[in-house]
């Protein structure tokens, strides 16, 4: 478990931080809170005397930051070379359509969030998808659709129970 | 001065200037996109490249310093082909929408393409589709027409100190947006429209209300009343091909009548009224222990800026409504009574140099009983459009004068259109109100001119007044920081949101350079020096309004109609 640090503590760890500390600070916040909220960006802006538009601009420049909390199921689709060659692009298309979200976003019911990652170090199993830490190997669009439906069904059962 | 050679001719250059500046003075045009007068070059678009003998490759002329003996070529095949390619690439994902476009006929990008002989599409790039942002009452953003030159961002950040927008994402996905992609209406944008003035395309434009006004004009049930701001008469002529600085005051009044307005009033009258109220407020603050310094409140971009960034200074902002809103309030009260009309039957339109006025007239406190004091604000540009649509040619008509009871004005009121003008008008009247004597010379040179920050200490009766004038919110921010750090020698501070004042407002004709803005300013001072009535406190119509209706400055009725209050605003800063 990563320790949960408040934005305030993180900022205290960077006394007299200049704009060059922005990226490390944002990384620590994302590590601790899972995403960059408007609130945290405002706090960082105050500490570094930077407008939030600029911080948002810098943060979106890099693919690693997300701006919505993760969903209950965090779906990571690998777009590394091996997975790409084996057609992970089609799975990604399928899942963006099925969930109606783009990479980096979370569904309205907060159930699913989507992330695109570079090689997950499991190229032998390509194309690879990882949901909440569990690896799925040789994922075709059909297979991914089934996995997602299973997640949904599980939630239904929970809800009815 | 030293000599350089450009396209085989000898031209003069000055040490410290860029190649572009020398070429321009020598009469050689080099196209630019990202270059902004008065700001450091960003060097991103490369549109301005030239060949310099002895240099490998092309040199961006907007950022490269000129040097003695340089041999420059601006029209070799390589240079011309490079320009074409840059434009081709910009056009490759641009919508072919010129016919229906807000900048049709007045577009820098279309002009670049035409001037460089581009007559067909060379590349078909993938179009991006991002929704328009229609959320702001002042500004419309259409990201599909954006060519990512970055000028709006620099304007908003470096000149206005607001930074509502920035580049979001990167590469082929990059676009200009607000923090968290919010609508401009909930961002820190203060609606100044300065970004529109620098945008080479229709990616930024004003929220138009021309159709709504045309509809009102066509409605026989409605009395449509119009007011025009001090800075509009000296710029509207540019829209009809006249030189900057041409005054169309009387012609514009006549043209407004031809276009169908039932009454034409002059906002400069309300500026005189503002001087009476604001002058009295300043005296009251001085005699009753503050809070001081007092800031002017006529510029709605500035007011929103304080509400967002410096709420601790809100008690220092004059409670006076802006001249536009004062005029709106007396139109829907005094004038309605006089005409025996239900205020709901009056449509009050105002012609402003400003996009932020559109936001201001929508503020909930600017009206009573669900009747807004001002219904629609049109910019100078929209007024030109209205004249064209209705077939009125202001250039061709005989001048007329504005209507009573709000048509008479002093030239002090007219000065509200230039940075320093409100202060000059206020001091003229303050001297009289506190000493009973008129100033020997009304002209206060120290407050005139294009500088972003001007200061003056003047003796008014027993009081030495510390006066400061700033224009552009970047300049205002500097002064606010000085005040926060404890500066305490100032009593009265005039702030205008736009650099140089309303003559350079975000609603003014597009494409004005520094010289054009100076000419507009000079036109206002020319009007003042030639006028019979040069002080607000001698405006007879203002006196009559107090006698018949308002009572006295800061009186009960004034408070109800002419004053307002401000609140801290929560936006993402
Ligand atoms: S912005 Fe200019 S080039 Fe683009 S559609 Fe409008 S007029 Fe045409
Ligand atoms: S209108 Fe003014 S404050 Fe708003 S984005 Fe444009 S430059 Fe910035
Ligand atoms: S909106 Fe206009 S000024 Fe801003 S980057 Fe795009 S084209 Fe340039
Ligand atoms: S490329 Fe996908 S796991 Fe290596
Ligand atoms: S105008 Fe020189 S690089 Fe853009």
Description:
- The complex is a heterodimer of chains A (161) and B (573).
- Chain A is of the alpha+beta class.
- Chain A contains 7 helices and 4 strands, in the order H-H-H-H-E-H-H-E-E-E-H.
- A 4-stranded mixed sheet of chain A has the order 2-1-3-4, with helices on one face.
- In chain A, strand 3 and strand 4 form a beta hairpin.
- Chain B has 573 residues and is of the alpha/beta class.
- Chain B has 3 domains: 2-75, Roll (Ubiquitin-like (UB roll)), CATH 3.10.20.740; 90-206, 2-Layer Sandwich (Alpha-Beta Plaits), CATH 3.30.70.20; 211-562, Rossmann fold, CATH 3.40.50.1780.
- In chain B, the strands form 6 sheets. In chain B, strands 2-1-5-3-4 form a 5-stranded mixed sheet, with helices on both faces. Chain B has a 4-stranded parallel sheet with strand order 11-10-13-16, with helices on both faces.
- The longest helix of chain B is centred in the middle third of the chain and has 21 residues, at 267-287.
- The two termini of chain B are 46 Å apart.
- The A-B interface holds A 38, 41-42, 45, 51-57, 60-61, 67 and B 157, 163-170, 177-180, 187-188, 572-573.
- The structure holds iron/sulfur cluster (3 copies) and FE2/S2 (inorganic) cluster (2 copies).
CATH topology of the largest domain in chain B: Rossmann fold
Unique bound compounds: iron/sulfur cluster, FE2/S2 (inorganic) cluster
**What helical percentage do the residues of chain A reach?**
40-55%
CATH class of the largest domain in chain B: Alpha Beta
Radius of gyration of chain B: 25 Å
* Largest beta-sheet characterization of chain B: 5 strands, mixed
The value of Rg of chain A in angstroms is: 18 Å
Name the average pLDDT of chain A. Answer: 89
Overall pLDDT score of chain B? 94
Structural class assignment of chain A = alpha+beta
Number of strands of chain B: 19
**Count of separate DSSP helical elements of chain B:** 18
Run of helices and strands of chain A: HHHHEHHEEEH
Helix content of chain B: 25-40%
Strand content of chain B: 5-15%
Poorly predicted runs of 5 or more residues of chain B: none
Task: State the helix count of chain A.
Answer: 7
Overall number of domains of chain A = 2
Shape of chain B: globular
């Amino acid at each position: 478990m990563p320790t949960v640090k408040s934005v305030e503590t993180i900022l205290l760890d960077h006394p007299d931080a200049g704009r060059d500390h922005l990226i490390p600070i944002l990384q620590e916040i994302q590590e601790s809170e899972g995403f960059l909220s408007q609130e945290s960006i405002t706090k960082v802006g105050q500490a570094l005397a930077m407008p939030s538009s600029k911080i948002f601009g810098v943060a979106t420049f890099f693919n690693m930051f997300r701006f919505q909390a993760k969903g209950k199921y965090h779906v990571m689709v690998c777009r590394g070379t091996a997975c790409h060659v084996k057609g992970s692009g089609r799975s990604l298309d399928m899942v963006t359509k099925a969930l109606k979200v783009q990479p980096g976003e979370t569904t309205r019911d907060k159930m699913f969030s989507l992330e695109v990652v570079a090689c997950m170090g499991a190229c032998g199993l390509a194309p690879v998808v990882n949901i909440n830490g569990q690896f799925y190997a040789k994922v075709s669009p059909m297979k991914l659709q089934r996995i997602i439906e299973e997640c949904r069904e599980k939630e239904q059962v929970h809800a009815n129970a | 001065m030293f000599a350089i050679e450009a396209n085989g001719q000898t031209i003069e250059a000055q040490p410290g200037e860029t190649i572009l500046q020398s070429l321009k003075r020598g009469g050689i045009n080099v196209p630019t996109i990202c270059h902004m007068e008065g700001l450091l070059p960003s060097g991103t678009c490369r549109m301005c490249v030239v060949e310099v003998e002895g240099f490998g490759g092309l040199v961006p002329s907007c950022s490269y310093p000129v040097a003695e003996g340089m041999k420059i070529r601006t029209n070799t095949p390589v240079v011309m082909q490079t320009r074409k390619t840059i434009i081709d690439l910009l056009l490759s994902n641009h919508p072919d929408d010129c016919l229906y476009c807000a900048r049709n006929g007045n577009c820098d990008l279309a002009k670049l393409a035409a001037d460089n002989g581009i007559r067909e599409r060379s590349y078909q790039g993938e179009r991006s589709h991002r929704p328009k942002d229609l959320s702001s009452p002042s500004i419309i953003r259409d990201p599909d027409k954006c060519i990512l030159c970055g000028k709006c961002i620099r304007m908003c950040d470096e000149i206005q100190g607001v930074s509502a927008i920035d580049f979001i994402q990167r590469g082929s996905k990059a676009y200009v947006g607000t923090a968290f992609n919010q609508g401009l209406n909930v961002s820190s944008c203060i609606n100044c429209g300065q970004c529109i003035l620098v945008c080479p395309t229709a990616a930024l434009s004003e929220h138009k209300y021309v159709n709504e006004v045309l509809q009102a004009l066509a409605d026989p049930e409605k009395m449509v009343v119009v007011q025009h701001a001090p800075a509009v008469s000296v710029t509207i002529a540019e829209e009809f091909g006249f030189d900057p600085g041409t005054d169309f005051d009387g012609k514009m009044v006549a043209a407004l009548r031809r276009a169908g307005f039932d009454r034409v009033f002059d906002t400069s009258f309300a500026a005189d009224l503002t001087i009476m109220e604001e002058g009295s407020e300043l005296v009251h603050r001085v005699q009753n222990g503050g809070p001081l310094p007092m800031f002017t409140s006529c510029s709605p971009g500035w007011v929103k800026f304080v509400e967002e960034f410096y709420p601790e200074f809100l008690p220092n902002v004059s409670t006076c409504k802006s001249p536009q809103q004062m005029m709106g309030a007396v139109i829907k009260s005094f004038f309605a009574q006089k005409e025996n009309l239900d205020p709901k039957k009056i449509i009050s339109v105002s012609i402003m140099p400003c996009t932020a006025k559109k936001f201001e007239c929508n503020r909930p406190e600017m009206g009573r009983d669900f009747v807004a004091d001002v219904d629609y604000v049109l910019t100078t540009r929209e007024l030109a459009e209205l004249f064209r649509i209705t077939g009125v040619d202001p250039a061709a008509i005989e001048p007329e004068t504005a209507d009573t009871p709000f048509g008479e004005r002093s030239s002090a009121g007219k000065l509200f259109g230039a940075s320093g003008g409100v202060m000059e008008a206020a001091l003229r009247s303050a001297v009289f109100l506190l000493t009973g004597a008129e100033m020997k010379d009304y002209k206060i040179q120290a407050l005139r001119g294009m500088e972003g920050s001007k200061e003056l200490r003047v003796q008014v009766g027993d009081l030495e007044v510390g006066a400061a004038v700033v224009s552009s919110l970047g300049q205002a921010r500097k002064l606010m920081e000085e005040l926060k750090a404890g500066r305490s020698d100032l009593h009265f501070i005039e702030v205008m949101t736009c650099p140089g004042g309303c003559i350079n407002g975000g609603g003014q004709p597009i494409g004005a350079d520094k010289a054009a803005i100076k000419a507009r300013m000079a036109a206002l001072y020319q009007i003042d020096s030639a006028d019979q009535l040069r002080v607000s406190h001698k405006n007879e119509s203002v006196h009559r309004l107090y006698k018949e209706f308002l009572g006295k400055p800061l009186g009960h009725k004034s408070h109800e109609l002419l004053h307002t209050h401000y609140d801290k605003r929560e936006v993402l800063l």
